[in-house]
Design brief:
This protein is α+β, with helices and mostly antiparallel strands. The protein contains 4 helices and 12 strands. Strands 1, 3, 6, 9, 10, 11 and 12 form a 7-stranded mixed beta sheet that branches. Strands 4-5-2-7-8 form a 5-stranded antiparallel beta sheet. A hairpin with a 7-residue loop joins β4 and β5. The longest helix is centred in the last third of the chain and has 47 residues. The radius of gyration is 36 Å and the shape is rod-shaped.
Length: 273
């Protein structure tokens, strides 16, 4: 009986613990094309010289670096107030990111900064999940404020070519909503500038490319199954009933044997008398 009570208590306790601590499930979905992400850049005084899409990780040699080239990307400029201060005005350049991961599509951008009063020069950027959602948004300034509040921002420095490889993580929350997060791996290569230029003149190069065709999906799964618990409890109670029946039959059998023994003993005593 004590063992059965302990098993019932342990089963209920395990069920409650599994409800409180769901297990994280990670799966991967392969896609031939991504929804083109939005790349929000904050160049400040830097000028966009060129923006082009290339394929198969091939970037042609630079022609006249530091001079304006072709802008072959879909871009938009947007101004909005800083979502954290509501006072500072932010000036963003929004660029449509790569889509075709099978062909290893990439976006290559070149910026030029002629002068700076800073000790270190860098351009900030952030990534958001859909450039098309930005285009369709009726209030693009508010859209960008929400993006800046939700997504992390990064930097790339002048005098280098920064290669950003992106990956996408979608997390399903407890309320059923889905959040999107970008992860990235960066490699930095020094640019050998052979131009005759003043020391404050700098070039910035950045490449955006998808790392692989797999979207990572994360969700919490509750492993506690009420039907399993009910079945286990039913098994315990059934075992208790079986044990009780067995005990009842055992007692009846012992009483019967005892009565038979007493009867034989009485007959033996009568025979002696």
């Amino acid at each position: 009986m004590a063992v059965a009570v302990f098993l019932v208590y342990q089963t209920i306790t395990d069920f409650r613990e599994k409800l409180k601590h769901p297990v994280m499930s990670v799966s991967y979905k392969e896609v031939p094309l991504y929804d083109a992400p939005g790349i929000a850049l904050y160049p400040g005084k830097a000028q966009l010289l060129s923006c082009k899409h290339h394929y198969y990780d091939h970037i042609p040699p630079l022609i006249n670096p530091g001079q304006p080239g072709g802008i072959e990307c879909t871009t938009q400029r947007i101004n909005y107030t800083d979502p954290f201060t509501n006072q500072t005005m932010k000036h963003a350049l929004i660029v449509q990111g790569p889509r075709d991961v099978k062909k290893r599509e990439l976006v290559f951008l070149q910026f030029h900064l002629n002068e700076t009063d800073q000790d270190f020069s860098a351009i900030n950027y952030l990534l958001f999940s859909s450039f098309q959602e930005f285009l369709n948004s009726p209030d693009k300034a508010e859209f960008m404020k929400d993006c800046e509040s939700s997504y992390s921002s990064w930097k790339f420095s002048g005098g280098f070519r920064t290669w950003v490889k992106m990956s996408l993580v979608k997390t399903k929350e407890e309320d059923g909503s889905e959040t999107v997060e970008f992860k990235q791996e960066t490699s930095v290569v020094n640019y050998i500038d052979q131009r005759h230029k003043p020391a404050s003149d700098q070039l910035f190069f950045v490449v955006f490319e998808w790392k692989d065709p797999f979207i990572q999906k994360v969700q919490d799964i509750v492993t506690a199954n009420p039907w399993n618990m009910i079945a286990l409890l039913c098994g315990i109670f059934l075992a208790l009933f079986k044990a009780a029946d067995f005990a009842k039959l055992s007692v009846k059998w012992m009483i019967k044997i005892r009565k038979r023994h007493l009867k034989r003993r009485s007959q033996a005593m009568n025979h002696i008398s």
